[in-house]
Amino acid sequence: MTFTPKTPAFEKAVKDSRNLKAKPDNDELLEVSFPTPGFQLGQPTADVSLSTQLYSLFKQGTQDPPFAEAPKPGMFDLTNKAKYNKWKEVADEGLTYQQAQEKYVKKVNSLKEKYGFEG
User: Fold this and answer.
1) Which residue from 6, 10, 32, 66 has the highest number of Cβ atoms inside 10 Å of its Cβ?
2) 59 band by pLDDT with thresholds 50, 70 and 90
3) What are phi and psi of 114, to 5 degrees?
4) What DSSP character marks residue 20?
5) What whole-number distance in Å separates Cα of residue 57 and Cα of residue 76?
6) What do you get for the CA distance between the two ends of the chain, in Å?
7) Radius of gyration of the chain from Cα atoms?
8) What are residue 32's phi and psi, to 5 degrees?
9) How far is CA 107 from CA 2, 35, 61, 115, in A?
10) Where are the alpha helices (DSSP H) in the chain?
């Protein structure tokens, strides 16, 4: 296993994310888009987007473990499957750990502005 260096700004953002005055709701953290009207189970889910921004940026930023070594969640583990799939998108985009850390810091800073911060 290789060590992925973390910038001081990233480490601070990780700590700060735990000290927001109010917890963002799941829609904010997951960016849930619900299916369009007329959607039926069994259809392709191209219009269903579960984006787990903070999780995927954190995982890509720390590389612990690297995506290629991460266990794939079971088919009925929908929450972790959504997280895994978003992390896969980030990894497939070629986002480096440095870029992921920078984006994570920006996202946490925007949450601090929106929800307040106790620190």
Assistant:
1) 10
2) very high
3) -75, -40
4) B
5) 24
6) 33
7) 16
8) -80, 125
9) 26, 25, 13, 12
10) 8-17, 26-30, 53-62, 78-93, 97-115
Structure tokens, 84: 């895994």
Residue 104 identity: Y
Please give the model's pTM, rounded to 2 decimal places: 0.76
How does 73-104 read in b/e, with b if 16+ C-beta sit within 10 Å?
Answer: eeeeeeeeebbbbbbeebbeeebebeebbbbb
Give tens-digit pLDDT for 49-58: 323 688 889 9
Give the Cα separation of 114 and 28 in Å (integer).
11
Whole-Å CA distances, 38 to 35, 41, 44, 60, 104: 8, 10, 13, 35, 35
Q: How many CA atoms lie within 13 A of 57 on its CB side?
A: 22
**Residue 85: is its pLDDT beyond 80?**
yes
Distance CA 75, CA 118 (A): 38
Tokens 């299916």 identify what position?
35
